[in-house]
Amino acid sequence: MSDHTNHDYESGHSSHQSPGKREMSRRQFLSYTLGGTGGFLAAGIVIPMIRFAVDPVLQPKAKADWVKVVEESKITDKPQAFKFPVHQIDGWYESDVELETWITKGSDGKIFALNPTCKHLGCTVDWNSNPSLKDQYFCPCHGAHYTIDGKNLAVAPAPLDEYDVKVENGFVYVGQLHANHRV
Fold first, then answer.
1. Which of 56, 105, 140, 165 falls between 20 and 30 A from 41, CA-CA?
2. In this structure, what DSSP letter does residue 160 have?
3. pLDDT tens, 33-52?
4. Does the pLDDT value for residue 178 go beyond 80?
């Protein structure tokens, strides 16, 4: 029995160590420690920069406020263009822009407002600007045209978008832009 113990001692193997286990060298320990510390410090610098860049995208989009556009008495059964100011927030950039809408009374007597942006490639449509297309919205860029309700007749893949409209105290207000519900 002492012969067996001497043999283990002489070969440098202890009966307490498993044969596949290796110890970590000082160089490996320093590499792991410095790499982990460097990674932690870099993350502390990079994460706030990423959050700063991505945060506006993650914020919930606010609904549009109601904007007073025109007196109700000026609205007829023929579309008229009206401009209105909007405060716009695009990420970190804030600006005041002027938008346009075409407002008219429908055959049902209700007032509605259409966005003049063509659904084909984003040009601005105009009412009765093409003599061959009477009583239609016409896009001069590629020939798209729409009915008075904004229904697409040619070229454009979808009808003109519509604004929410409310009439209050004798004034017409426009709100959120959405897909056209009239057609």
1. 56
2. P
3. 999 999 999 999 999 888 88
4. yes
Residue indicated by tokens 């401009």:
83
What residues are paired with 82 via a beta bridge?
101
All domains of the chain in start order, with CATH: 2-58 (no CATH), 67-178 (2.102.10.10)
Which token pair is 6?
């001497």
Which of these, 45, 56, 174, 58, lies nearest to 116 by C-alpha position? Answer: 174
Give the residue among 99, 97, 98, 105 at the shortest CA–CA distance from 80: 105
Q: Within 13 A of 89's CA, how many CA atoms are on the CB side?
A: 11
Separation of alpha carbons 137 and 156, rounded Å: 12
Residue 150 DSSP one-character state: -
Strands (E) located in the chain: 67-71, 80-90, 93-105, 111-114, 126-127, 137-138, 145-146, 152-154, 162-168, 171-178
For residue 4, the 8-state DSSP code is: H
pLDDT reported for residue 35: 93
CB-CB contact of 95 with 80 (8 Å): no
pLDDT at 53 over 70: yes
